[in-house]
Amino acid sequence: MKKAFAVRIGDVSDAAFNRRISPLFHVAAIKAPVLIGQGTNDPRVVKSESDQVARELFQAKHDVTYIVYPDEGHGFHRPPNNIDFCHRTERFLATHLGGRVGPRPSQLAKDTNLYLFRDQLNCAPMWEAFPNGGCWILKIKKKANVLGKMWQDLLFAVIGEAFETLNVVGIAMALRSKEDMISVWNADNADDNVRFAIGREKLKEILMLDSNTLIEYKFHSNSIRDMSTFRNAKPYVFAAST
């Protein structure tokens, strides 16, 4: 292991080598803005070392953003911290590289709808586009304060094809006054096994839902008839594990 690291980064027992590669001794050469995220309990990149680099950058009047998470170690594993740092990174990159930064779900106005659908012909968040399909629906109470994390996990899941079927064509988030909804749209219900695998297996796994979580399913043919994605959907509860 030591030989492998020596090949990759050099001989760390050599003090002169360490000084030569340490950013602490090359602050004057840093020209780009810097974003540092640090966990207080990180056993690998200890906080005192990040403090030193940040202090040198501040004293040199460099453009630096330094965020410390007291309840994190190496990597950000707590959902609130993960979301916070992702949002800060997005804002940092938008500020210095151009582009735009999107608000968090909790900052969006009531009656906002967000969609992410496959980039293919006739694939749009419209019931008529998938008359033989439908969507799984999860309703989330406002006070639960989990919408941001769930939406983030669902975005990563569909981008990474975690549902493992092309029958999943998109996802949606709807913000309302009393509760919010996220939904997973499927194109065709010819095979009930595929439909239930999407909602009662994969969705449960991706969002780490409890076995007593209530989810609903609505056929698009019914939505076309009653002009609502969410009203009169059929409820389901995950079967408890044995």
UniProtKB/TrEMBL annotation:
Keyword hit for Transferase: no
One of the GO biological process terms: proteolysis
This protein's UniProt keywords: Initiation factor, Protein biosynthesis, RNA-binding
Family assignment from sequence similarity: Belongs to the eukaryotic initiation factor 4E family.
Protein name: Peptidase S9 prolyl oligopeptidase catalytic domain-containing protein
GO cellular component: eukaryotic translation initiation factor 4F complex
Gene Ontology molecular function, alphabetical: RNA 7-methylguanosine cap binding; serine-type peptidase activity; translation initiation factor activity
Natural source organism: Aphanomyces astaci
Top-rank taxon, per record: Eukaryota
Peptidase S9 prolyl oligopeptidase catalytic domain: residues covered: 19-99
